[in-house]
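A student in our group prepared the protein record below, which I am reviewing. Here is the record exactly as it was handed to me.
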Amino acid sequence: MTVSVSTGALAGIRVLDISRILGGPYCGQILGDHGADVLKIEPPQGDDTRTWGPPFRDGVASYYHGLNRNKRIQHLDLGTVAGRDRLLELLAQADVLVENFKIGTMERWGIGYEALAQRFPRLIWCRVSGFGADGPLGALPGYDAAVQAMSGIMSVNGEAGGEPLRVGLPVVDMVTGLNAVIGILLALQERHRSGRGQFVETTLYDSGLSLLHPHAANWFMDGRTPQRTGNAHPNIYPYDIFRTRTEPLFLAVGNDRQFASLCQVLERPELATDPRFDRPGARSTHRVELKRLLEDALSAFDAIDLVDRLMAANVPAAPVLDVEAALTHPHTVHREMRVEIGPGYRGLGAPVKLSRTPASYRHAPLTPGTDFDTDE
């Protein structure tokens, strides 16, 4: 069955997603949310992430469900001639290909970009890889946690004086998927002028390095190796978690006006004029003394009530919520960041909101499909 896709910024764009695991499928899901017709090709046994659980529903892990909505699924064995021939038929209809095979695999099958660029001159071919095809690490497989380790991310994540720590979500994979979306959109825009597709590449390694702000900027300027600072920002203070009479709260005070307002709410206005704290650089330099004084003042306040008062005074502050509390927060619902498709799918909504061509949620994960839509 085909479903007409008449809305969405990418309506009419046909995407062939032959990727697996996270970065590529995440890219494909975003394109699908914004109206692209996405056909996902999986091997006969399915994407590996179907087994990455628990939890499971009908034998398929939640991990898979979180990355593969707004796609229709077809199974092909690209290791066979018949599977590759079918892929070529689909490429003739596609605007975009997203793939993350180990570099050299598709070339070995005779269906790499160089072999097919002349045959499909308008095709935008997006490769997601670990390290790219060449260079000292070229063609090596890449994994999120390993790239977090070698790109410097783990070195600045964790408690001050503690061990390096992996960020608690696959941030490198996800930002690589986002970069893939950006690259595809850039190539689609350029195709309007030239009429030609091109090769788009995003790598986990490049994407991991791209996340190092402000640590990279600091190192480029002064040559000092950045250190772990726990919840505290390396350049700004108070930008940290603080104890109160009840739960902890997070303060993200970035300028003198916000700091003065914080001091007023805490009934410690003298701190705003103290020479140790009256400028952003001074507050960062004297952060140990400042944290002690702030937590002394905060000990008289209830965290939830205080957050409301601080936000009303334009002081950035937040409670520290767990995942359940965040996903059930009234503002999460208001922002349409929880979506449902039919009775069996719930997931996160699209964070990019467009006024005329909003995201839509048309296909639950595992929707079967044999071809691109023809009813446009």
User: Anything to note?
Assistant: The chain has a mean pLDDT of 96. The chain has two domains: 14-211+335-348, 239-320. The chain is about 35% helix and 15% strand.
